[in-house]
Amino acid sequence: MEQRYATSPEHVPGMDTAELRRRYLVENLFVDDEVASVYTHHDRVVLLGASPVTGPISLPTFPEIRSEFFFEHREAGIVNVGGPGAVAVDGTSYGLAHGACLYIGRGAVDVVLSSSDPSEPARFYLVSAPAHTTYPTTLVEPGGGIVRELGDALTSNRRTLNQYIHENGVRSCQIVMGVTTLHPGSMWNTMPAHTHDRRTEAYLYFDLAPEARIIHLMGHPSETRHLIVADQQAIISPSWSVHSGVGSASYSFVWAMAGENQSFDDMDGFAIADMR
């Protein structure tokens, strides 16, 4: 499990591109037949990626989280960004199509991930946070949950947002999670940009052509930086950082948050004219 320690806005101006990428970009989440994991000390969030190809993968127990099993003191949201697959939780199997979301609550012991077709393996993206109580494991099919239509074609940010895990949907202790898909001709996500000073957020970009890239804006609104992001790469966005981007081609992204407030609209907006 890779460790990423917390940073503050004051650290960013002194970082070069390599350090920005090392601290905030997760490039290799999906390795065949392995579970990759990154522990960020921003809100104790863990990002994991699993791509079972030759057979099922059991979610391991990592010594860094000091638990007998992964979900002893944690919960997680999972989105499948690859081919069809399944997640078995303590013997109950849940089929996850591309874009489906599964919430796993505290206390789950045996979690096994598998692909339906090895030629088109599933790619399971997990976001986990500490949990103080147990909520039931719940599956949401692609396009389910609460659907919100946002943006405008005139500003190139028309998008469909699916809220899966949130205060008025699938219950959790801290995790808030969903999938946003840009409409044809729209390339900007999360514009106007915002921060939310009570939650860490993570983005995973997917359904992006291999040759295409996302220009992801991060940093304090008064001094932004950018990262060049490829398909199925993730961004760790601290509470003080904006998280917005534009793609060179169409794409979707998984957004996930953890912190003390689960209200989706709890954010502080910044007009593009006020950013630097």
UniProtKB/TrEMBL annotation:
Q: Which GO terms describe its molecular function?
A: 4-deoxy-L-threo-5-hexosulose-uronate ketol-isomerase activity; zinc ion binding
Catalytic activity annotation = 5-dehydro-4-deoxy-D-glucuronate = 3-deoxy-D-glycero-2,5-hexodiulosonate
* Cofactor, free-text remark: Binds 1 zinc ion per subunit.
Entry EC no(s): 5.3.1.17
Q: Which coenzymes or cofactors are required?
A: Zn(2+)
Per the record, a Pfam family?
KduI
Q: Identify the pathway.
A: Glycan metabolism; pectin degradation; 2-dehydro-3-deoxy-D-gluconate from pectin: step 4/5
Domain of life of the organism encoding this protein? Bacteria
Listed GO biological process terms: D-galacturonate catabolic process; D-glucuronate catabolic process; pectin catabolic process
Q: Which CDD domains match?
A: cupin_KduI_C (cd20491), cupin_KduI_N (cd20294)
Where, by residue number, does Zn(2+) bind? H194, H196, E201, H243
Keyword annotations of the record: Isomerase, Metal-binding, Zinc
Q: Which InterPro entries match?
A: KduI, KduI/IolB_isomerase, KduI_N, RmlC-like_jellyroll, RmlC_Cupin_sf
What's the family? Belongs to the KduI family.
Q: Which NCBIfam families match?
A: PRK00924.1
Q: What does this protein do?
A: Catalyzes the isomerization of 5-dehydro-4-deoxy-D-glucuronate to 3-deoxy-D-glycero-2,5-hexodiulosonate.
Which protein is depicted?
4-deoxy-L-threo-5-hexosulose-uronate ketol-isomerase
